[in-house]
Specification:
globular, 4 helices, binds beta-D-glucopyranose, Beta-galactosidase, Chain A, domain 5, five-stranded antiparallel beta sheet, mainly beta, about 375 residues
């Protein structure tokens, strides 16, 4: 007993005195609690609640890897839940627009669900007529993921893993996927994606959280002030497939290179905005390298909450919840109307398997797919 106390005290001293532990400490401290969240086809799924030392909490279920809640303080210190979603599993099992979910194998659209690899043609199911969207009818958002809770050495988070079979939803190759979520003491939600394949395939993973920094269900997001680290976007046709062009945002409603409210020009006469019913476009990041860099920063003046997005990806889909229509009843019985949430989905560009000039989304055997995104919260 005394020996073990002495050992713990010694361990504490070693950790406390070693400055190289500082960065580990960012992730080490999140406390994880686990609750039952219900059953999916007879299999029990869970809710994992990560809490850091500032009281920030992130709740994640292994059904779809869905982030169900992000509770962060406003400038007066009161916690608010800033992502759209449901109070119970049932809402997520019914039809919904991918609230908080892991998207795969391919985030966003592939033109008519068709592509070729090494001259072999593949046809995906059409779930967003006439295209394939977000991995098909049974995408990664509907999987029950295996979970490993991290030990203290590895960080305060959970690692989700899954095997996607060769041919699943039409995609070639057996894919081994892991997605790691961690919460740091700097109020960052880290998402780390990895995958390997046994046949050449395509992959583009993202997370589909809908944010409202005023709190989920508390009105629309038009007053949020947004900056995106981008000077270009990829225009789309009326089915939201990229035309292949890359256009400058200067002098268009797509210019968020300096901070603008989301609502300032969302309803301008602009053919691209008409195609999306608002913003629903891929922005090409100024630094499109695979280094971790700032993607966007959003500030909500009434609450003082701010969120920065960082990523290793070359693009981001900025979507303003244009298809929300008030029919979905979310958390606390509040309905989600048009533009009640926005998404910043870090990604490779939509339809890349058919666009030679876009950065490649191909993954070959022997390679490892890696992607990392951070949502960092603060107040102003
Ligand atoms: C797409 C939208 C779609 C939404 C929900 C976004 O990533 O770009 O067009 O409606 O996801 O499915």
């Amino acid at each position: 007993m005394y020996r073990s106390m002495l050992f713990s005290a010694l361990l504490f001293l070693i950790i406390a005195c070693n400055p190289s532990n500082e960065s580990k400490d960012r992730v080490m401290q999140a406390r994880i609690t686990k609750e039952s969240f219900g059953n999916v086809k007879g299999e029990e799924v869970f809710l994992y609640i990560l809490e850091n030392r500032n009281g920030m909490k992130v709740s994640i279920t292994n059904y779809g890897g869905i982030v169900t809640k992000i509770q962060v303080p406003d400038r007066d210190g009161s916690l608010g839940d800033v992502v759209l979603g449901f109070d119970s599993l049932k809402g997520y099992l019914d039809d919904h627009p991918y609230f908080g979910a892991i998207i795969g194998r391919y985030g966003n659209r592939i033109d008519k669900g068709a592509f070729e690899i090494n001259e072999e043609s593949f046809q995906l199911p059409i779930n967003n007529d006439p295209n394939s969207l977000h991995g098909g009818f049974q995408g990664f958002d509907k999987k029950v993921w295996q979970v490993k809770e991290h030990t203290i050495e590895e960080g305060g988070g959970i690692e989700l893993s899954s095997i996607s079979k060769d041919g699943e939803e039409g995609y070639p190759g057996k894919l081994n996927v892991t997605v790691e979520y961690a919460l740091t003491n700097d109020n960052e939600l880290l998402i780390d994606y990895r995958a390997t394949t046994d046949k050449p395939t395509v992959i583009n993973l993202t997370n589909h959280s809908y944010f409202n920094l005023k709190g989920a269900g508390n009105g629309n997001v038009l007053e949020h002030v947004l900056r995106i680290e981008s000077d270009q976007f990829t225009p789309v046709d009326e089915t939201l497939i990229p035309t292949g062009a890359v256009e400058n945002v200067k002098n268009t409603p797509f210019d968020f290179s300096t901070p603008k409210t989301i609502g300032e020009r969302i309803d301008s006469e602009n053919i691209q905005l008409q195609h999306g019913g608002g913003y629903d476009h891929n922005f090409v990041l100024r630094d499109s390298s695979s280094k971790l860099k700032s993607v966007a920063i959003v500030y909500e003046p009434s609450s003082g909450r701010q969120m920065e997005v960082l990523s290793t990806e070359p693009g981001v889909q900025f979507y303003t919840g244009n298809f929300l229509d008030g029919t979905l009843i979310g958390k606390g019985g509040k309905s989600y109307n048009k533009r009640y949430g926005f998404c910043l989905e870090t990604q490779h560009f939509p339809d890349s398997p058919n666009q030679e000039k876009f950065p490649s989304t191909r993954l070959d055997p022997g390679e490892e797919y890696r992607s990392k995104t951070i949502y960092k919260f603060s107040i102003r």
